[in-house]
Design goal:
Layout (H helix, E strand, L loop, with lengths): L1 E5 L17 E5 L5 E8 L2 E8 L2 E13 L2 E3 L3 E3 L3 E10 L7 E15 L6 E9 L2 E8 L7 E11 L6 E7 L10 E5 L8 E2 L3 E4 L5 E7 L7 E6 L2 E6 L10 E4 L2 E2 L2 E7 L2 H6 L2 H4 L15 E4 L1 H4 L14 H14 L3 E4 L1 E2 L2 E2 L1 E2 L13 E5 L5 H10 L3 E7 H6 L1 H11 L3 E5 L6 H16 L3 E4 L15 E4 L16 H4 L40 H10 L4 E4 L3 H4 L5 H6 L6 E8 L3 E8 L2 E8 L4 E6 L9 E8 L10 E8 L4 E6 L4 E8 L1
Parallel strand pairs: 23-33, 24-29, 29-30, 30-31, 31-32
Antiparallel strand pairs: 1-8, 2-3, 3-4, 4-5, 5-6, 5-12, 7-9, 8-9, 9-10, 10-11, 11-21, 11-22, 12-19, 12-20, 13-14, 13-15, 13-16, 15-18, 16-17, 17-22, 18-19, 25-26, 27-28, 34-35, 35-36, 36-41, 37-40, 38-39, 38-41
Length: 659
C-alpha cells in the first residue's frame, strides 16, 4: 500500500487575527463543489454544509455531554491545522480493488475557557463525494477518562427532502424491517431511524447519513425532534444514560454525509473504507471470498433416499457433493430443527441455555470427518454459531475450528450495537483472523467500512431479507429496491440469495420447506450483482438448480470486484449496477412492482474492443410464470445501448466478456 500525505501551507487570510481567536473555519472538497463551515458563537459550535449553490445542512449545533458536564458553551478555537490527504490502497473484499482516496482535512482544536478546561478536536474531511467529521479526545492534564451521556450531533436539514429510512422500535434489534418513504416534514418525530438514511432534495441532490470506523464506541441512530435530526447513541445494556466509557486518548466514529447530484455516485463511493484504518491482517493469502450453501433456508431438504435429513454426515455429504459439482466454494453447517451442531440446552437457535458448549459436537456429527470429506472434494466448511456460547470460549473454539479445517463462521443473534457489542464484534474479527477464519455476522448492525481493516469480515445481515419468505410476505421487489440506496451504502449485506422457486405476488404463499420467492428469476440473478456481499448465499436445494435456466450465471458470478459503476438507476424504482472482475463485466438490474424498459448504455466498456454479452431478460409472461427468462447472446462494444424490459418485480442480468 502506498500512502502520501501532503501538508498544505495554511492560507488563513480569512481568519480573524494572529492570535487565532477563530470564529469561523471553512473547508472545501478537492473539486470545490462541497463546502463545510463551522462557526463558534455565544451559543456554541454549529456547522453548515453546501453542495454547489444549495445549502443542505445549516446552523447545526455540535455538543457533547459527559458525567462532568456538557461541552458546548464557553469555547474557543485554537489554530486549525489543514492538510490534503492522498492515498492509494487495495481492498481484498470490496466493490473495487484499487482505491484512490483524495480529501482535504482540517483539525479544529476546541478548548473550554472555564473549568474544567477540557480540550476536544473536531476533525473534518471533505471528499468529492461527501463530508465526514469526528471528535478526538487528546491526552490532557486533569482529564484522563470520560463517561459520555449524550453525543449532541445534529443534522438540521434545509427544505423538505424525501426520506428513505428504516425505523426501529428500540436500540436492541436485528435491524430487520420495512423501509419508510416519506417527505421529511411528514416523518414521525421521536422515532429511531437506522443508518444509512437517504434524503432526496427537490433540487436533484442526494444525501445519505451514516457512520464509518465504529470501534470502541456505541452505534448511532437518527431521531427527529422539533424538526431537526439528532444523533442518538445506543446505551449501555441495563440502563439508558451511559453511552460511551473510555480512557483518553480516544475518538468517535466518523459521522458521514455522502453527497452527490447523481444517486449512483453514492453506490459507487468508497468513502467508508477511505475513513478506516489499513489492513491489520498481516497474512491475507488464506482469505478467499466465494459462494456458499445455506440449507437452513430451504429446510435442509435432501432427496427421498435411504437417509433422513438432519445433523448427520450423509446430509452434509449430499450438499458438499453439490458444491463440488456446481463449482461453488463453501458448505454451511448450522444444525437442524432448532438444534445446533453443538451441545445446547436452550430453546431454539436464538436462546442458548446455560449449559451450551461450543466445544461439544452433538453425537450424530463428527466434525473432523465432515471437514476431511469436504477437503477431499475441494470444498470448505463454515459453521453457524450463536454469539454467546462462541464468545464464552472464543480462544478455545477458534483453535478447534482451525484444527478441524473450518474456514469461517456465521455469528448470529447479537441484536445490539452498544459499545460492549461493538468491542465484541471487533474481537471476533481480530481473533478469527489469527486462526485463518472469516466472519459472517447475522443478527447484527450495519457495517462501517471495517472490511478494509479486517478483510476477513465477509458480509453482514442487518436487513430484512429472503429468509422472511419462509413465514411472511414482507420481502418483495419493492423492499429489495430500497437496498442499493440505503443499507448497501454502508457495505456488504447478506440477503439469503438464490431462491429459484418464484411465484407471482398474487399466487405467493409462505412455507418453511422449499420456500417460494415473489420476484422473477431474472430479479434473483441480478441481486447477485446489485448487492455487495463477499459470501454469496446459494440457499435453495440442489434439485432447484440442476438443469434450470440461469443457474450458470450464479455459478460464474464473483463476490468481490475490481470496479463498480452505476450506468442507470432511479431512487426506489430501479437500479442497474455494473461490476468488473478481471476482464469480465457483470450487470444486474432490479425493478420494483412497476414494469418498465430501461436503456443500458455500455460506455463503461473499453473503447475499441468487442465483447460477447450473454443477456438474461424477463420472459414475456412473468405474470403467469415468474420463473420465465429469455437468454440471448450478442456482440457489443462501448458504443452500444441495450434495451432491457423489466417486468413487474423483475430484472435483468448480463455477463459481458471480451472477445
Amino acid at each position: 500500500m502506498r500512502k502520501k500525505i501532503m501538508l498544505l501551507a495554511l492560507a488563513v487570510g480569512w481568519l480573524c487575527a494572529p492570535t487565532f481567536a477563530t470564529k469561523t473555519v471553512r473547508l472545501t472538497s478537492p473539486n470545490g463543489k462541497l463546502r463545510f463551515s463551522a462557526e463558534l458563537t455565544d451559543k456554541g459550535l454549529a456547522y453548515d454544509i453546501a453542495f454547489g449553490k444549495q445549502t443542505l445542512i445549516q446552523d447545526s449545533p455540535l455538543t457533547l455531554t459527559f458525567d462532568n458536564g456538557a461541552f458546548g458553551e464557553h469555547l474557543k478555537i485554537s489554530k486549525p491545522t489543514f492538510k490534503t490527504i492522498e492515498e492509494d490502497y487495495e481492498l481484498l473484499t470490496g466493490k473495487a480493488r484499487q482505491i484512490h482516496s483524495l480529501s482535504k482535512e482540517v483539525v479544529i482544536p476546541l478548548e473550554e475557557t472555564v473549568k474544567p478546561f477540557r480540550k476536544i478536536h473536531l476533525v473534518v474531511r471533505a471528499f468529492d463525494d461527501g463530508i465526514a467529521f469526528r471528535y478526538e479526545f487528546p491526552e490532557q492534564p486533569g482529564w484522563d477518562k470520560y463517561i459520555m451521556y449524550e453525543e449532541g450531533t445534529t443534522f438540521r436539514l434545509q427544505g423538505n427532502p424525501n426520506v428513505t429510512a428504516l425505523c426501529l422500535p428500540n436500540y436492541q434489534s436485528s435491524h430487520e424491517g420495512p423501509y419508510t418513504v416519506a417527505d421529511y416534514t411528514a416523518l414521525a418525530e421521536r422515532q429511531l431511524m437506522d443508518m444509512p438514511a437517504t434524503f432526496a432534495f427537490p433540487e436533484g441532490i442526494f444525501l445519505a447519513i451514516t457512520e464509518a470506523a465504529v470501534r470502541d464506541y456505541a452505534g448511532m441512530y437518527l431521531w427527529k425532534e422539533n424538526g431537526c435530526l439528532h444523533g442518538k447513541l445506543s446505551p449501555k445494556i441495563g440502563q439508558e444514560r451511559i453511552k460511551v466509557e473510555a480512557s483518553l486518548p480516544h475518538r468517535s466514529p466518523w459521522r458521514v454525509l455522502m453527497i452527490s447530484d447523481r444517486i449512483g455516485a453514492l453506490i459507487e463511493s468508497n468513502l467508508l473504507t477511505n475513513l478506516n484504518e489499513p489492513c491489520r491482517v498481516e497474512d491475507t493469502s488464506w482469505i478467499r471470498p466465494g459462494k456458499t450453501t445455506f440449507p437452513w433456508w430451504n429446510g435442509n431438504v435432501v432427496p427421498d433416499t435411504t437417509f433422513l435429513p438432519g445433523n448427520n454426515f450423509m446430509t452434509h455429504k449430499y450438499y458438499i457433493d453439490f458444491v463440488a459439482e456446481a463449482g461453488l466454494d463453501y458448505h454451511s453447517i448450522y444444525g437442524n430443527a432448532e438444534q445446533a451442531w453443538y451441545d445446547e440446552d436452550g430453546f431454539g437457535f436464538g436462546s442458548p441455555g446455560p449449559k451450551a458448549d461450543i466445544l461439544k459436537v452433538i453425537p450424530s456429527l463428527n466434525m473432523q470427518e465432515i471437514c476431511d470429506y469436504a477437503r477431499s472434494k475441494g470444498v470448505r466448511i463454515h459453521l453457524w454459531t450463536n454469539w454467546k456460547p462462541l464468545y464464552a470460549k472464543i480462544d478455545e473454539a477458534f483453535a478447534q475450528f482451525e484444527k478441524w479445517g473450518v474456514a469461517g463462521m456465521m455469528i448470529d443473534f447479537m441484536d445490539r450495537d452498544d459499545q460492549e457489542m461493538i468491542r465484541i464484534q471487533e474481537e471476533f474479527l481480530a481473533k478469527a483472523a489469527k486462526h485463518h477464519l472469516f466472519v459472517q455476522f447475522h443478527g447484527a448492525c450495519k457495517p462501517s467500512g471495517l472490511n478494509r481493516t479486517y478483510p476477513n469480515e465477509f458480509t453482514r445481515e442487518g436487513t430484512l431479507n429472503y429468509e422472511h419468505c419462509k413465514w411472511d410476505t414482507s420481502t418483495n421487489a419493492d423492499h429489495d429496491i430500497h437496498m442499493p440506496f440505503t443499507r448497501l451504502l454502508a457495505g456488504a449485506t447478506d440477503y439469503h440469495l438464490g431462491g429459484f422457486r418464484s411465484l407471482p405476488r398474487d399466487k405467493f404463499h409462505p412455507q418453511e420447506r422449499n420456500p417460494y420467492v415473489m420476484s422473477t428469476r431474472c430479479h434473483m440473478l441480478a441481486m447477485y450483482v446489485v448487492l455487495e456481499s463477499y459470501l454469496g448465499m446459494v440457499c435453495d436445494t440442489p434439485d432447484a438448480y440442476r438443469g434450470q435456466p440461469g443457474f450458470e450465471f450464479i455459478q460464474a458470478v464473483p463476490t468481490t470486484w475490481d470496479k463498480t459503476v452505476v450506468p442507470s438507476c432511479s431512487l426506489n424504482e430501479y437500479a442497474c449496477i455494473a461490476r468488473q472482475k478481471d476482464a469480465i463485466w457483470y450487470v444486474g438490474a432490479i425493478n420494483n412492482h412497476q414494469a418498465r424498459t430501461i436503456r443500458l448504455q455500455l460506455g463503461f466498456l473499453d473503447k475499441g474492443k468487442s465483447y460477447e454479452a450473454t443477456i438474461y431478460k424477463d420472459g414475456p409472461d412473468t405474470a403467469t410464470d415468474s420463473n420465465q427468462l429469455v437468454k440471448e447472446r450478442r456482440i457489443v462494444t462501448s458504443a452500444d445501448t441495450i434495451e432491457l424490459p423489466l417486468a413487474s418485480d423483475g430484472g435483468a442480468a448480463l455477463r459481458i466478456r471480451p472477445l
